[in-house]
TrEMBL record:
Main location: membrane
Cellular component, GO annotation: plasma membrane
Subcellular location: Cell membrane
Domain Prepilin type IV endopeptidase peptidase: residue ranges: 130-256
Keywords in alphabetical order: Cell membrane, Membrane, Transmembrane, Transmembrane helix
Membrane topology: Multi-pass membrane protein
Official protein name in the record: Prepilin peptidase
GO MF assignments: aspartic-type endopeptidase activity
Chain ranges passing through the membrane: 6-26, 86-106, 118-140, 152-170, 190-216, 228-250, 270-292
One matching Pfam family: Peptidase_A24
All residue ranges annotated as the Prepilin peptidase A24 N-terminal domain in the record: 14-98
Amino acid sequence: MTMTTPLFYGFIFVLGLAIGSFLNVLGLRYRPNRFLLASPVWSGRSRCPHCGKTLAWYELIPVVSFIYLRGACHTCVHPLSVQYPAVELAAGATLVAVPFYLASLYDAPLFAANGGMLAWFYFLSVVWVLAILALILMSIIDYRQRIIPDEIVAVIAALGVVKIAVLASYDQVFLIQQSFLQNYALLGQFWNGMVLNHVLGAVGALLILGSIVLITRGKGMGMGDVKLGGALGLLFGWPDIFMVIVFAFLAGTLVTLPQLLWKTKRLNDAVPFGPFLAVGALVTFFFGYTIIRSYFSLFGI
């Protein structure tokens, strides 16, 4: 079973559904005064959040159980949140889409056909899969509790260090595309050094988001968003992180502006910015080059 077979992608999609179910457990049980992976968070039987009934095994099958139960608890018939299948499907899609996209971006099949080793590709795939899964979990928690756990920020920052190490280790073997903006990244780079660009990404994100916190006196966003931005900057590097922030603000505007116009939200209402940073990261990862190319093509660049 190779990475080019439908069987492989089917297997990792099902695995992703199971991981998504676990992310739901972590996100829903997390409490700010507990360590993210503390025993009370991930251990114990799952129960209906409304009537407290312990769920049977057939009520815990990712996506399938939600469809079978018609989106409601079997006992109290209270509607279940669509978050359950949405997160499971998002995690499953992540495990499929990330290696598929990276294989296309780096021409991994062609490289392997010519006798090249693909250890770098597997490392990068794991790094980005874990990073996106961490962003999904962060989004659940930030949306529900308005807090971004430091543990998730630390994981994303650590993955950034691993990514830098992988790129540096194989940089002398062949050219790995270091930016998701591809050749357009040259328009915003200050240094050719890969490590320096990633450090600059972290510093740049901290300065941009930190300035917003200072200007708005913490009403625009919190320090958790700043720390998350710094970790993403280390992972994406410069100038990719700038696009992450731009897309995050665009996503936030598209969501909150209609709510303000329809008066379902007020201007001083708190809005979790972490999920928008996650959206910005995903857009940059998968569509950054396409969007930036379309933009510059308007000017003949």
